[in-house]
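Q: What structure does this chain adopt?
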Amino acid sequence: MPDVAPSRAQPRAADVKPSDPKRPAGAATQGRVTELKVSGHLMTLDAGLFCVVLTAPIVGPGGLPGVRLSRPPGTIGRPDSVEISTFREDGWLGDGEGAALVRIADGPARILVTIYQAPEATPDQAPRLQVLRLTGDAAAAPAQGRPTQAATPEAEVVAHVQRMGDVGVKFGEWMGTRGSRLWIEGFGIAPRETISASDIEYQAVLGRDWLSPWVEGGKFCGSRGMALPLLGLTVRLKGAAAAANDLFYAATFVDGSAVGPVPAGEPCQAESLAALEAFQIEVRPKGAGRPPVAPPTAGAPPRKVGRPKAALPKRTQRS
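A:
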């Protein structure tokens, strides 16, 4: 009989069998399905703005456990009143990056919390969630402010400012206006002259000893329309740019206080933890010294621009 090559037909649905729960998650063979431990919970929240935090997650192989927040199916939980903004682009809470903002416009309303664990996970490895109320009401989306200049492609620093939306300035200029009492909700930095976007990274100050992870240049760090102000920022250079240059930044805050210039890598925040109002970042050749303090003036508002690609911050402890 002639030789017959073995067929490579794909397995049928009936051929796919769950793998042994005792087998490590990474050892599942092709064509098998690993059964995870999944549990769902409905969380009821009143009207307001909340931060849901994944506290001390124990991360095992495969990135588990993981948590997702979503609107519940159907209309009983009033999903139209729920807005969820996760600190990761893929929507997951886990792997040390566990936080999300939840706005309930008209409460009470429900969110669906789904927890995924590895088959061999023990009860003490289950994620723990903490819910922090940030405001007592839902806080409407920022209203339209006074007219600003048209979009400016030359903008290298972009920020989302209360009642103004996205505005932009050149790198080295002040972002924001001192005395305006308008807070900054998020920002992105993409220099193009002295240094490039790949040479810089930054963090947002979210609370006392609570910083976002480092966000690479060109990506947005913060939130938009959640009425959640940043409380400061941390900036630093990388690689050859850090070896050849010094970086300093200063900021003003809605309570009238001013801080800086501070050197790269140090948080720039008010002692009172007031909301960030304006900031300036300067790069100088190594050894040129600290720049003088030059607060922004009320006569030079930033220019309105289109939105850069968003990359929301993640919750982490200061490194």
